[in-house]
Design the sequence.
């Protein structure tokens, strides 16, 4: 069964994204007084995506995000079974990534500058659920639309696809960190929220629905816009799931034509 390789790649990819991104936020902080923390955290998330696009992109597509996977599902570039497997792997990857950070910070007696393992919240929008939803919908729509456009079979971006996607995530984080902490990824929000709940802080888990609904709605809108702009895409079942980076997509190999051997019938006497 080849699917386990894709699911393992998604698990490891999401683990890496949360470990690097949330870990950086926990070290440098992301409050209004530390503008430098915004930039460092934004680049940590963005560069993690670039690295994953070039490493696991040719295995699973490097989605590491249920919202991204939903975009590919709606545009018929992946199956429902793969979508479910991807989301499960992504959630566990985020959970293990957050757990690893919590363990390291506790053993090393390191101060968590975010106070909540890099969780998302609504403090930046004065606890307005509607404002938080709008932020996540718009930012996720931009991010997923970029991914679908860059990886479209009708467009060729060479080896720069992963870089374009990573820089887009940097921009999305620079704007969103001061508002909601920037989720655009339900798995990235759920992992730290669960770990924070085990540590006694259930507030991030109480507002998690904002970071579930917002990104999924944004991804659905992005997929709809993409289909309007690009037109329907043909889905080939025996091809690997399309990547969200620049990794090459393998094409079916055509059978080589059979060669007809010539037989000499003349005999020397």
Sequence:
């Amino acid at each position: 069964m080849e699917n386990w390789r894709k699911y393992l790649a998604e698990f490891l990819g999401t683990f890496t994204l949360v470990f690097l991104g949330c870990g950086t936020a926990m070290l440098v902080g992301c409050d209004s007084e530390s503008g430098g923390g915004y930039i460092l955290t934004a680049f940590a998330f963005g560069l993690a995506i670039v690295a994953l696009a070039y490493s696991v992109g040719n295995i699973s597509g490097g989605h590491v995000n249920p919202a991204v996977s939903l975009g590919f599902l709606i545009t018929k570039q992946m199956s429902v079974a793969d979508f479910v497997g991807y989301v499960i792997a992504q959630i566990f990857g985020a959970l293990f990534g957050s757990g690893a950070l919590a363990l390291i910070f506790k053993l090393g007696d390191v101060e968590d500058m975010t106070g909540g393992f890099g969780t998302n919240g609504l403090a930046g929008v004065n606890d307005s659920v509607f404002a938080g939803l709008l932020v996540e919908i718009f930012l996720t729509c931009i991010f997923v639309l970029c991914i679908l456009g860059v990886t479209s079979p009708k467009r060729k971006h060479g080896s720069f696809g992963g870089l374009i996607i990573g820089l887009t995530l940097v921009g999305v984080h620079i704007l969103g960190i001061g508002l909601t902490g920037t989720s655009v990824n339900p798995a990235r929000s759920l992992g730290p929220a669960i770990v924070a709940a085990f540590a006694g802080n259930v507030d991030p888990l109480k507002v998690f629905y904002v970071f579930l609904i917002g990104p999924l709605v944004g991804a659905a809108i992005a997929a709809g816009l993409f289909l309007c702009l690009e037109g329907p895409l043909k889905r080939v079942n025996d091809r690997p799931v399309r990547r969200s980076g620049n990794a090459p997509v393998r094409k079916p190999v055509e059978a080589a034509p059979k060669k007809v051997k010539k037989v000499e019938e003349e005999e020397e006497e």
User: Anything to note?
Assistant: The chain has one domain: 3-230. The mean pLDDT is 88. Residues 38 and 177 are 7 Å apart (CA to CA).
